[in-house]
Design brief:
Blueprint (H helix, E strand, L loop, with lengths): L1 H9 L4 H8 L3 H10 L18 H12 L4 H8 L3 H10 L2 E3 L2 E3 L2 H11 L7 H4 L1 H12 L26 H9 L2 H4 L10
Antiparallel strand pairs: 1-2
Helix pairs in contact: 1-2, 2-3, 4-7, 5-6
């Protein structure tokens, strides 16, 4: 509904007209517009199918209420059972200590989780940040804890690019390469 609402706003009609056309009240449409500062807070393109749609979440809620299991629901909507299981676990409403799956609550939770900007992993995870910083600084240690010396690069002569052999040490511990190296496994 919101996606359609914002598409209508983009054509130049008022928020009140757009709200009526998508089937919500005028105050709701005005609130959507006001809270977003007049700019669409969501992508206006249709979902790709990678993520569950609201319609699929409604179907999951109906089938769950009928007492169907995860695999039956997955077959009915054409999704992997793991996707359904994860959806039921992550986005269920907690009410009175028990989990109840509601499509509206699940959609809201999914939208909240997808919001940007997100906190970067290196900001959240102290051990990971320290690990990456040590590697980038050249403080590489062997499995026994002893420092491992890297090759000494030649003195910089004002030229743009060092020789490939001289770059090996620094590129070996870039965030992408260092995290997948055999010795450079992430700490748990």
């Amino acid at each position: 509904m919101q996606r359609q609402f914002w598409r209508l706003i983009a054509t130049g009609i008022t928020s009140a007209e757009a709200a009526v056309r998508v089937g919500v009240s005028v105050p709701v449409g005005s609130r959507w517009f006001r809270h977003a500062g007049g700019m669409p807070p969501i992508c206006l393109a249709e979902p790709t199918g990678r993520y569950l749609s609201f319609e699929e979440r409604e179907e999951i809620a109906i089938l769950r209420a009928r007492g169907q299991g995860v695999r039956e629901i997955a077959r009915a909507i054409g999704r992997d059972p793991g996707t359904i299981s994860r959806e039921l676990r992550r986005n269920a409403a907690t009410r009175g200590g028990k989990l109840e799956y509601r499509a509206g609550v699940a959609q809201w939770k999914a939208q909240q989780a997808a919001k940007r900007p997100k906190t970067a992993k290196l900001v959240k995870n102290e051990r990971l940040r320290q690990y990456v910083q040590e590697r980038l600084a050249g403080s590489v240690r062997g499995p026994d804890g002893t420092p491992v010396e890297g090759p000494r690069p030649p003195a910089w002569k004002g030229l743009n690019k060092p020789h490939r052999a001289d770059r090996r040490w620094s590129t070996a511990w870039s965030p992408g390469a260092g995290l997948t190296a055999a010795e450079g496994r992430l700490p748990r």
